[in-house]
Structures are given as C-alpha cells and as structure tokens.
Specification:
The structure holds 3 protein chains of 3 kinds. Chain A is built from 11 helices and 12 strands. Chain A has one domain (about 5-315): 3-Layer(aba) Sandwich (Rossmann fold). Chain A is about 35% helix and about 25% strand. Chain B has a single domain, classed as MetI-like (MetI-like fold), CATH 1.10.3720. In chain B, about 40% of the residues are buried. Chain C is an alpha/beta fold. Chain C has 2 domains: about 5-225, P-loop containing nucleotide triphosphate hydrolases (Rossmann fold), CATH 3.40.50; about 230-340, no CATH class. The longest helix of chain C is centred in the middle third of the chain and has 18 residues, at about 190-205. Chains A and C meet through helix 5, helix 6, helix 7, helix 9 and helix 10 of A and helix 7, helix 8, helix 9, helix 10 and helix 11 of C.
Chain lengths: ~325, ~300, ~350
C-alpha cells in the first residue's frame, strides 16, 4: 500500500427529488479517500446511502455537489473519452448475482462485453482471455457457453467478478457482493477478492451491511448512517474501540457463532428503526435512537473529527 | 459392521474444479421454450390448426380447380357438394377457392400489420424508455394522442386522401396508429429492465447506449414482443374483416373474409353456408392465435424456468 | 417430553425436464413440544423443501413426496396422508410458517389489521370486535409500537422488520404448536435481525411453541436453538444440541460452516476458511458421501460408499467415514483454529 490516494471524495452529495418538496438525501456531505492498494469498507444498514455513494463515485449517478477525484481527475467533469478510460480503470461488482447477469446472454458473452469495449482482440485472443478469466475465478471453460440460470449463486457472483476483471481495472467498487450468498459461499468470494488484490494490486471500496466481513477484508472501515459518515477508522480499531454509539450498537448486533459468548453477551438494543432519509432532521441524524443524546445533538449536526490518529468520528459526546 | 480394507481409508486428493461442473445437459433458450410449449396441448393444437390454415391459404385456391373470380351463372347459390366443396355464391363462384383466397389477404394483413407495429413500436418504445425524462414524456404524450384518434376516421381520411382502397392503403391506415399499443408495452417493459443490475453493469463497463438497447434491452423484451405479436395478428385480421364488412376494405374482384361475410350476409336466411365458412375461418383464426399467444406467454416467461 | 412432530425417512423428488432431482433423501428427525430446532445448510440443501413438506406447501407435481415418507403430527396424524380439508385447518391452527420475504406473503391491498383479523375470524370463529382486540394484543406481543394505529396501515407503509413482525403475529394468531421460520432474518439488517431473533426466543417461551428455524448462518442460531441439524445435499449430515454442534462437532462440513463465519472478537488477518467448489447437482445419482467432492479429508471409501450414521451421544450423531476406527485421525481443535488453510 502506498500513500498515494487513488480516490478522493470531497463533500460528496447526492440528493434525489422524490416529489414535491421532498428531497431524499441519499449521500449527504461525505468525504474520504482511498489509497492505492487499500480496501476501504463501507458499512451501514439499508437506506444509509452506501450503495448510492459507491455508484456516484463511479460516475454512474451524477453528483448533486462535491467532487470525486480519480488519480487527481474529477470524475464528474470528465469528457467522453476520459470517461471511457475511467470506466476501464474503475469497475463495479454488484449485489444480486441473479439480477446482475443478463439472462439472455451466455457467460462467455457477459464476460466478453467489456473486452469488446476496451480492447481490440481477435476472436481467438478474445476466447483465450475469457477462458483465462474463468480460470482465475475458479470456473471451467465449459461454463462459457452456459446461461446464468444454470449456475449457482456463488458461481454467478464469480462471473460478476470475472466481468469486472475483464477490462483490467485498478479500482473496484464491491457493492454488497456477498449479502445475497450463503455464509459458506461468502467466504469463497471474499477469499477470491483478497487473492486478486494481492496478485493484481487492486484497490477496493467494499460495501456491505455485514460488519464482520467488512472488518475481515478492509484496512479501514467507514460507518454510514442516513447518508452521513459517522465513524471512520482502521478496521481493528472499529471493533476494538468503537466510539460512535451507532457503531457500538451495530457491532453488538452481530451474532457470534459461539453459544457461551452469545449467552453472556449483552446487546445494545437500538430503539426503533432507521428513520426515512427524506427530509432528515436537523442536528445529529442518530439523535432519536441514541441513548447519549443531549440538546446539542438535536440542534447541531456533528462534524467528522479526528479523535485519535486515523480514527475519525462524528459525535458530540466523543 | 463388515470389514472394509484399510486401504480404502487413504486420503485422496480432490479436484475441486470437478464439483463446479454442471451436470445438466446444455439447453438453449429457444429449445427450452419449445420444450415448454410442447407440453401445452391447447397451444400445440392451435399451432397445428394455424399451420393448416396458413398452408391452405397458400395452396387452397388451386385445389378445387375453380378460379376464385370465375363466374358461372349456371351454378348460382349451390349447396356444398362434390363439385363445389363449400358451395357457390350468388354469382356462381366457388366458395372453397374464395375462402382461401380471402384468407390469404387476411393473413397478409394480420402478419405484416403485426410485424410493422412490432418493429415501429419497439424502436419508439425502446428509445423513449432508454432516454427517459423529458424525451419520454413528450414521446408518450404523442402516443396517447395517436391512440385517441379513432382508427375508422384514419381509414376514411387516408382512403380519401390517397383516393385508393388497395391493400397497401389499408395497411398504412391500420398500422398508422396500430403500433402505439406495442410502443407503450415495450416502454413499460424496458423501464423495468432498465433498473436491472445488468444494465448498470453494462453502463459501468462503458457500453454505448445504442448497444445496450440492442444487446440487452431488446433481447429481453423479445418474449413479451412475441406474445404481443401473436395477440396483434388476430386484432389486425379482425380490423380488416370489420372494414371489409362495412365496405371500406378490400374491393372486388379481390376479396377477404370480411368481404365474403358481408356479401353472404344478405342471403343469410336462404343460404347460411355462404356465411358459415368465412365466419368459421375468422373465428378459428382468431381463437387459435389467441390460444397460441397464451401458450407462448407461459412458455416464454423466464420466471417459469427451472 | 412429548413429541409434537416426527419426520421419518422423508424422501422428496422434483420432476424436471432433465430428470428426477432427489432434493430430500431419507431425512428423519423429531421435534418436542416447545423445543427449538435449527436446520442449517447452504441453499439447495433441501432445508426449505423439508420445511415446506411439513405444511404440505410444495407444489405437487413437480414435487413428489415418495412412498414410505412419514410426517407424524402430535403422535397420531400423518401429514402426508391428510385430506385437503384437514390440511386447511392444519396450516395455521397447528403449524404456521413465516418466510424470508414478508412482502410476498402479505396482501398489499389489505391493511395488516384486516389480514390478521381475517385469520382469527376464520380459524377461531371470532366476532369482528373481538378479533380486533385480539389483533391489537398480538401486535403488541410482537413489539409493534402504536398497535392501535398500525392496524390501519398497509404492508408497504411498514419497514422490512415491521413486516416480519406482522408475519410473526399472524403466524401466532391461532396459537400453533409449531412455528416454521424459513430464513426469517436473511433479508433484514443486522440490528433488526437481532431484534427479530430475540422476539422469536421470547415468544417460544411465552407460548410454548415449538420452532423450526431454517438458516444458512450458524451465527444466528448460537443463542437460539436447542437442537441443530446440519443438512447437505438433501441429507442430515450431523445433528446435536447446541453445545455439541458448536464445541464437539465432528463433521468436516459443520467445521466448514463454523469456520467460514468471520469472527469479530478475534484478530484474524489470515485467509478465511472457505469451502471450495459447489454442492453436487442432485439430479445425478450419488455414490458415496455427497460431501466428498468438496471435502479436504476425503478418502477412497468416501467416493464409493455412503457413510453410516455414528452415534456419539443420545443427541449427537453424524454420518462421516472419519468416524471409522481405521480412518486417519483429525484433530478438531486444530481444524477449528483455522490451521487447515494452505
């Protein structure tokens, strides 16, 4: 890992208009950066904006305001040719292995699609490349002529990875790549991602709601709540010393596969559910569910501040 | 427990890739559709009847040995007999030859009409759905206006303007607004597909919009499109029949099922068989196309694949 | 303890274009009154099929419950042979089921109050007023705040967690003796998942309902299940009580499941243990042990003959050739510390 930032996100905002005077603030003023060769984890519950954040970084959604820099270039201000070049370098792996593969294309065609856009290969070279990619993700050549519905969930997700790898990217947004899979298959996919990172030197933004997996794969973890980053720290710190009350609750909700520990564990129970991101309240967004909330939390929105080296948290109480 | 030789308890190396192999035979999409359609008896029966009807519209007029416009004043209004299988009409023309000749016109109108509206509707609907936003709004308002124009009015206007009542003019006037339904349906379907993750993945790969429409969206609306075509064909046939029946359609000496029915209707009380045969053909064609469409819809539904 | 459910030699096949898929092969188990049982395994291992067959929710055909399969309810009735009329009252009154996605099992055009009241009026013959009161009480039992207001809401107005609570309330409306929960928390966020699991535990004690929980995640059942059965490729490969599965399990597949959950409380930077390969397609005839194609400890015998069931205690048993006296010994503790990674 070098100290060079591959991705810099600066005050990124993505709002959606969802009707009269209703603004859904999916990503609300988020800033962070990702170093070359690093894995940054992004966790949070559904509706916290982590997926939107990932897609806006890739330029798949236009940002409402703020900037995303890839190698110093603003992704949202690129011209057509630069954008195509960027898309070759920055790829995405999607969540649902059933919906993310075109049911009418064979696996070979799916993987070959990106190759056709960015490389000029002869038919034989192209076929060889597809076979190579299938082999990388642990599938056989025979799979190339099959259709997605013939594959298991884990196999499909590996096809999704092969499709992203086909254009030889440097940066991959893994958008909940494991949440639709069985636990035993999740490990398979995560190991594959880790191995690829070591071999090709990829940089990941790993989005998931599963803090334990995120902690395992990431160097640093960012916790999002209702469109804001509430805590950002090296992954072991996040577990060892969570500071934000939301992070604490999130960690305590994760089951541990050990009955003795589970039986003794006291859960921090969160009252209620995640409020709607449409017209969110002033002040701290976690205010209503927080046990430590004060009047200040109600009125003033906390900013992300560095409380320890590399450990950022947005909470008035920390 | 019986004894098992110790040899058997040696560790062996497992090739994990073996377990990735797919056991089931490879089966293409259309093969699979055909397999499911085959299991639907009603649809297959409809298909067989349809094939026979289409086949007969091609060769039927030459079978009876009479030309469809051959007038024989000696044999007016004959009942069905060995000589004239379906009988003769008031001018002594052989109804058997006429029914199939008329069917040819009806089929041509039905099939080409449905194909034209499928092509135009898909392009229009696809364009509208893919670009969305304001483009979509404007394009769909145009469709709504077109749909609200009664097609009878269009037919009359076109025949006045072009001063012709040929097959071509009728095709134009029927398809002029006929594609709107398809366009709406394709747009709805594509809007749904557009939010699919594989479209997002293609966009992230940098695939160009036109290619996304051609390679992802259209193949995936193909199934609903085929169903819509099979429902559109009887619609066009019926429209043509109706127009011919009220005298706005095919003009003599050419004929169609509607024109036959219209002519026969005058003598219906005395010679019911003159009406029976064209009416039977109309009903049979409409019914079989609709039933086949139903069968196709079930066979093409990807959710039913297993 | 009284047995509320006995499943004996359950065999279920699906008939597809490519042939017969033997989805469940010789599954037998008992469930006592008020007990919680977890069926754990990967998707396609037959756990959902087994559960659905208990309420006869499988579409037959293509599914077929084979001759000789018995599902004895309450010691006397065989579910496989039940009449359609009896099945209607059996589902709901005796056994209810909740599913992974509550949205698909709720009617979007009716308020949640109407839906629960309907169940009460049909199964319990209650009057409207009485049913309404009972509905509010039920919603309060599953910790839905403002129950009186909530009964007028439609499913789409509720969050995923709320919907699952409504489903649970509906399932409990007729005091069933068995509640089958098919991956009830998979579609939910972790914090909500914890809430729902706690709720199921509370309700089990309160109503003395037996619960069959189906999941792919052993972590979820760590503080929930009395008994755990691990399924693989349509068979139960290991069964035992909670302690036995978590601390004394001997089947390599159970180890794999335990190991593939990353632990938050340990600092393991090394590779996660991952099962390689893909489960076998049950359309093929299986020779030997179904797991042998992915097992690290596979021996020649595993490819040739099906392992016999070995009993380790009254409650703990497994099917694996490693239990044979001639088999090489594998140190369980070492395996579970993650040292079998290369």
């Amino acid at each position: 890992m070098s100290n060079e930032n591959l991705i810099e996100v600066v005050n990124l905002k993505k709002y959606f208009n969802v009707g009269k005077n209703k603004i859904l603030k999916a990503v609300d003023d988020v800033s962070f950066n990702i170093k070359k060769g690093e894995t940054l984890g992004l966790v949070g519950e559904s509706g916290c904006g982590k997926t939107t954040c990932g897609r806006t970084i890739l330029g798949l959604y236009a940002a409402t305001s703020g900037h995303v820099y890839y190698c110093g270039k603003d992704v949202h201000a690129m011209d057509f040719n630069e954008k195509i070049k960027f898309k070759k370098n920055a790829q995405i792996i999607l969540q649902d292995p059933y919906a993310s593969l075109d049911p009418r294309m064979t696996i070979g065609e799916i993987i070959g699609e990106g190759i056709d856009v960015h490389f000029k290969l002869t038919r034989i070279e192209r076929q060889r490349r597809i076979n190579e990619l299938l082999d990388t993700v642990g599938l056989n050549q025979e799979h190339a002529s099959r259709f997605p519905h013939e594959l298991s969930g884990g196999q499909r997700q590996r096809v999704g990875i092969a499709r992203a790898l086909a254009v030889e990217p440097q940066f991959i947004v893994c958008d909940e790549p494991i949440s639709a899979l069985d636990v035993s298959i999740q490990a398979q996919i995560v190991n594959l991602l880790v191995r690829l990172q070591k071999e090709i030197g990829l940089t990941y933004l790993f989005i998931s709601h599963d803090l334990s997996m995120v902690k395992h794969i990431s160097d640093r973890v960012g916790v999002m709540y209702l469109g804001s980053m509430v805590e950002l720290a090296p992954s072991f710190n996040i577990y060892q010393k969570p500071l934000h009350p939301y992070t604490k609750a999130l960690i305590s909700a994760i089951p541990i596969p050990d009955p003795k520990i589970e039986d003794e564990r006291k859960r921090i129970k969160l009252e209620g559910e995640v409020p709607s991101p449409i017209n969110p309240p002033e002040g701290c967004k976690f205010f209503k569910r927080c046990v430590q909330a004060t009047d200040k939390c109600k009125n003033v929105s906390p900013q992300l501040k560095e409380v320890e080296k590399n450990h950022f948290v947005a909470c008035h109480q920390c | 427990m019986e004894t098992i030789s110790k040899e058997k308890f040696r560790r062996i190396q497992i090739d994990y890739k073996e377990s990735e192999k797919i056991a089931r035979p490879q089966i293409g999409y259309w093969q699979d559709v055909w397999r499911r359609l085959k299991s639907n008896k009603v649809a297959i029966l409809s298909l067989i009847i349809l094939v026979i009807i289409v086949f007969m519209t091609i060769i039927g007029p030459y079978l009876s040995g009479y030309d469809f416009k051959e007038i024989d004043s000696a044999k007016i209004n004959q009942r069905p007999s060995k000589e004239n299988w379906f009988g003769t009409d008031e001018l002594g023309r052989d109804i058997f030859a006429r029914v199939w000749k008329a069917g040819r016109v009806s089929m041509v109108i039905g099939i080409t009409g449905a194909l034209i509206s499928a092509v135009v509707g898909t392009m229009y609907g696809g364009f509208s759905a893919y670009f969305g936003g304001r483009v979509d709004t404007i394009m769909m308002r145009i469709v709504e206006i077109l749909i609200s124009v009664p097609y009878l009015l269009v037919v009359i206007l076109i025949s006045i303007i072009t001063d012709s009542r040929s097959l071509g003019t009728m095709m134009i006037s029927l398809t002029l607004t006929g594609w709107c339904g398809t366009a709406r349906m394709v747009r709805g379907q594509m809007l749904q597909l557009k939010s699919q993750e594989y479209i997002l993945a293609a966009e992230a790969l940098g695939v160009k919009p036109l290619k996304i429409i051609m390679k992802h969206l259209i193949p995936n609306v193909l199934n609903v499109l085929i169903v819509s075509i099979s429902f559109d064909i009887p619609g066009y046939i019926f429209s043509e029949t109706f127009l011919s029946y009220i005298g706005l359609g095919i003009q003599p000496p050419n004929t169609s099922w509607g024109a036959l029915a219209s002519a026969a209707q005058r003598n219906f009380i005395f010679y019911p068989y003159q009406l029976f045969f064209p009416a039977l053909m109309i009903a049979l064609t409409m019914l079989t196309f609709t039933l086949l469409g139903d069968g196709l819809r079930d066979a093409l539904d990807p959710r039913l694949r297993e | 303890m009284d047995k509320i459910l006995e499943v004996k030699d359950l065999n279920i096949s699906f008939h597809t274009y490519a042939g017969e898929v033997k989805a469940v092969r010789g599954v037998s188990f008992d469930l006592n009154k008020g007990e919680s049982l977890a069926l754990v395994g990967e998707s396609g291992c037959g756990k959902t099929v087994t559960a659905k067959s208990i309420v006869r929710l499988l579409k037959e055909p293509p599914a077929e419950i084979k001759e000789g399969s018995k599902i004895i309810f309450n010691g006397k009735e065989d579910v496989v042979k039940m009449s359609k009329k009896r099945l209607r009252s059996f589902r709901g009154e005796d056994v209810s089921m909740i599913f992974q996605d509550p949205m698909t099992s709720l009617n979007p055009t009716m308020t949640i109050g109407q839906q629960i009241m309907e169940a009460l009026m049909i199964h319990k013959g209650m009057q409207k007023n009485e049913a309404k009161k009972e509905t509010i009480k039920l919603l309060e039992t599953v910790n839905i705040p403002n129950a009186e207001e909530r009964i007028n809401h439609y499913p789409h107005q509720l969050s995923g967690g709320m919907r699952q609570r409504v489903m649970i309330a509906m399932a409990l409306s007729c005091n069933p003796k068995i509640l089958i929960a098919d991956e009830p928390t998979t579609a939910l966020d972790v914090t909500i998942q914890a809430q729902i699991m706690d709720l199921l535990g509370e309700l089990k004690n309160k109503f003395n309902t037996a619960i069959i929980l189906i999941t792919h995640d052993l972590g979820v059942v760590a503080n929930f299940a009395d008994k755990i059965q691990v399924m693989y490729a349509g068979e139960i490969v290991e069964r035992g009580n909670r302690e036995e599965i978590f601390y004394k399990s001997m089947h390599p597949y159970t180890w794999a499941l335990l190991n593939s959950v990353p632990r938050l409380d340990t600092e393991n930077k090394e590779q996660l243990y991952a099962l390689r390969g893909t489960p076998p397609d049950l359309i093929l005839p299986l020779k030997g042990c179904a797991f042998s194609s992915r097992c690290e400890y596979a021996m020649e015998i595993c490819l040739e003959r099906k392992p016999v069931e070995t009993r380790l205690s009254n409650t703990h048993s497994l099917s694996c050739w490693l239990q044979h006296p001639d088999a090489p010994k594998v140190n369980r503790a070492e395996v579970l510390r993650g040292e079998m990674n290369e």
